């Protein structure tokens, strides 16, 4: 074993930084290990002062750092894109009655928010596009590191791809709804929907390959656009409802109305259809984590609590603020819609429009205003898809970099375009996977299952590192600048794991009791089917290539990128 001494000729083992807080002191014993491209094992004591730089995890900085914490919030906020998302889930929410507003509030603030906080800790400890599976690999027992990380990779990829499909599928549905408003005789067939879907997803991928500077401006525009859309509906819908003489529903109806349009029991139907819409809508909040390699870091203000300091982790700030804002604003929007929808739930649920929320707008605002709002909703849905396909492509790039795919394909996709500084090949790989996944549109229940697949795969992926953090790695897990303390972190992760287990069960249920093959929930078939095929491929040959995180830094590149002042200790072990 040999060591590299610091510039003052002191042993690096004695050159450990003086830390400033209790959480900082806990970092002294945290070692980040990876094998360099030269084949040496590098152990690094993590440095709080340097925001756990990407190079300390063994990865070369290839993507351009252009995103501030506001931009990362914009990505997550755009992915959730409240009004377009609510339009997509309004049928399911209303099938449980207007009281589903309580389900939205409960799910967003008591379920999704703890998951977001727990995810923020993981993203802060591993500030890379591969944070979720990198944390699973690090926390797992030595014997199961590669296997657990591989499972997380596959599940997260399934989730993100299904999310892209569901968003662009909704966008296609909104566009066709506009066509139906203009021409009531227009037939919105599945073939036409898939054709529009192909068009918008290819256009979205093209926009996503633009340079970081242009992409950040798109995110900023998306924030204002979504806020404008919400304000427009908050103002126009009540005014239109009043002008049309439609009676407003009172608080008793909004918070107490319960409906059942399924053959489940009323209580069972409410649990299935009042809790899931928020989980489907407030999804994609992991997008800032996947964009962490493009985040602009600034020194942390240690006098502020981590929840009040966006510089503690720009990605964490984006995750948490997007969940809270969408949770509260989405609740208010549902209240507005149910107050203005009229007293007959049947009239809305039995609408002939592709998206039943169109009927609410038609009743209150008339054809011209409805067409204008639905057109804007379609644009918002497109922005939503662009943001998610960008985050998904970063995940695709990261798993290719670590050879989760076979080497030839992985090395081809893990290339950053020199001109735009974006993973263009990974973007179009994501596009191709989404086009294939989107064929579920031709089966009505299969298309509906896209939302469930996105949630199920995502939560199954997150549970693995979070459960390991609570058990095997409870005293050894990595800590980043965003950390809620020993007790706070344990409680948050425990709630997050419990909620995710519950929601996975919920989204696996079919929409009707005792379904036939047309009514079944294809989530379990797609999610576990793809996972099973991936594990077979892993057992047969992929285990030879995927060995967990794969550094693309040589020894010299590591020292040049990180610098002696950025690390506390480096030890090289010769490859055996």
From TrEMBL:
Q: Does the keyword section mention Transmembrane helix?
A: yes
Report the locations given in the UniProt record: Membrane
**One Pfam annotation, family name?**
AA_permease_2
Q: Taxonomic classification, please?
A: Eukaryota, Fungi, Dikarya, Ascomycota, Saccharomycotina
Membrane found in the keyword field: yes
The organism of origin for this protein: Hanseniaspora guilliermondii
Q: What is this protein called?
A: Related to GABA-specific permease
TM segments?
69-91, 103-126, 147-176, 196-216, 223-241, 315-340, 371-391, 426-442, 448-468, 489-510, 522-541
Q: Chief localization class? A: membrane
GO cellular component assignments: membrane
Could you state a single Gene Ontology molecular function term? transmembrane transporter activity
Its record classes its membrane topology as: Multi-pass membrane protein
Q: Which UniProt keywords apply?
A: Membrane, Transmembrane, Transmembrane helix, Transport
